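Thread title: Can someone regenerate the structure for this chain?

I was given the following input by a collaborator and told the matching structure tokens would be attached. They weren't. Posting the sequence so someone can regenerate them.
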Amino acid sequence: MNVSLFPLSTEEVLSGFDWVISRFQDLESDASEVICDLGEDGGVVESFFARIGASDVAALAVSGGALLGDDDFGTACTFLTAGQVKEVNEFLSSISVREVMGVAPDVLNGVIRGGIPDGYLDDLETSLIDFWKVYELAARGDMCVAQICEG
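Best answer:
Regenerated them for you:
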């Protein structure tokens, strides 16, 4: 399953599933926008957080929240309220990307056979930096975070 996250105002979320999906497509094509594309690594990221004792926050931050809607063809949208975003951001502010990446080799050795591919850890670290940015921006702006799950 591909997971992407991005900040939205409460009003935008209240505009509904179709509007949020359309907004996501617009944001995805604009390199200047803050968006986190975890791709198929959402479960891996959740495993990293579980390893450091934060599985509840990770599940909420990566793929939790309330269901906004789905298209019955494999795309669903969930969202976190501004309050939930602040909770996640407070947690993320208490740890560093480096701490989370520190558990990556152990977690990945249990998931990937034959060794971790070259560049994979760098790509994951970039995704985590974007993850932090999405929650920081949303928390500062008293915004929600939408999560698009495809597949």
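The beta strands are 2-8, 36-39, 66-70, 75-80, 144-150.
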